[in-house]
Every structure is written in structure tokens, then in C-alpha cells.
Write a structure and sequence with these properties.
Blueprint: E1 11-20, E2 25-35, E3 40-51, H1 53-66, E4 73-78, H2 81-96, E5 100-103, E6 106-109, H3 113-123, E7 127-132, H4 140-162
């Protein structure tokens, strides 16, 4: 989707967060999707038994974009430098290099390539911009997403301690 066509698209804000208890460990993701023109909101969360923080940060964005029923001008607000830099700096290079990256002078696989490829497919439908916020700094929607993510993976922590 080109930036010039964004003016005809509905505007939405997608707040996301992901986290883990241990890295790797039980992890969760959460998103809050807001349509400012109508005030409508949607939120969701999920968890995995054994994952990484970066995977959960990506999953939050992916699940939020999957929740959109039609193309939109999406502002993704996240505390994840990994997701923001990956989208704006790294992914274009990975794609140009056949989804490989340079590491110590050699080609290496892209970590979380499956999720980056899925994100690439999803953002192609929308006009997307990333905005970075500081985590745990009192940003209301970011704090809300963090609570969703933590609550989602808590079920795995309870099962660990119950054994």
C-alpha cells in the first residue's frame, strides 16, 4: 500500500506489547486497536508455553493487524525497538538478500523469519507507520497491553508451580 493512498483509508491506532517470564520462557502478547473516528476499541491477547520476548513483540503486531477486516492507515505504537527497527531498517535488507542477514562476514538466517514474513504480508495490505514509546513509562495503552501480555502467560507460570 502506498503512502499516497493512505488519505482514503480509515485511520486506526494499534498499541502492542509482548513479554516473557524468562527469555526463553512462557510468553504473552497483547494489543489494543482503536478507531479514533468512532471510538471503537478491540483488544486481545495470547500466550505460548516456551518462546522469546522478541517473538511475542512480533506476535502482538501480527495479531493486531490480522484483526483488521480491511486496509487501513495504521499507526503501530510499540515499546519494541526490535519491531520498529526490524520493520524500517532490517526487513528491506533481508528481503533484498533473500531473507538472509550478514553476521561476522557470513550469511546467516534471519531470526524469527516466519514471523517477519507474516508481518511483511500483513503490512502490504495497509499504510503503516511505527511510533516508539518508552516501555513502563506510564503510557496508558502501552501499560494496558503489557498487562494483557503478562496475564496471558500467567497460566503457564501457575502450571509450573503446581507441579
Amino acid at each position: 500500500m502506498t503512502k499516497t493512498s493512505a488519505s482514503n483509508l480509515p485511520e486506526v491506532k494499534l498499541f502492542t506489547d509482548g513479554g516473557c517470564s524468562g527469555n526463553p520462557g512462557p510468553g504473552g502478547w497483547g494489543f489494543v486497536l482503536i478507531h479514533p473516528a468512532s471510538g471503537k476499541e478491540k483488544q486481545a491477547s495470547g500466550a505460548e508455553r516456551e518462546t522469546t520476548n522478541n517473538r511475542m513483540e512480533l506476535m502482538a503486531v501480527i495479531r493486531g493487524l490480522e484483526a483488521l477486516k480491511r486496509p487501513a492507515a495504521v499507526e503501530i505504537i510499540t515499546d519494541s525497538v526490535y519491531v520498529g527497527k526490524g520493520f524500517s531498517e532490517w526487513m528491506p535488507k533481508w528481503k533484498a538478500n533473500g531473507w538472509r542477514r550478514r553476521e561476522k562476514g557470513r550469511w546467516a538466517e534471519v531470526k524469527n523469519e516466519d514471523l517477519w514474513r507474516r508481518l511483511d504480508q500483513l503490512i502490504a495490505r495497509h499504510s503503516v507507520q511505527f511510533t516508539h514509546v518508552r516501555g513502563h513509562s506510564g503510557h496508558p495503552e502501552n501499560e494496558r497491553c503489557d498487562k494483557l501480555a503478562v496475564a496471558a502467560y500467567q497460566k503457564f507460570l501457575r502450571k509450573r508451580t503446581a507441579k
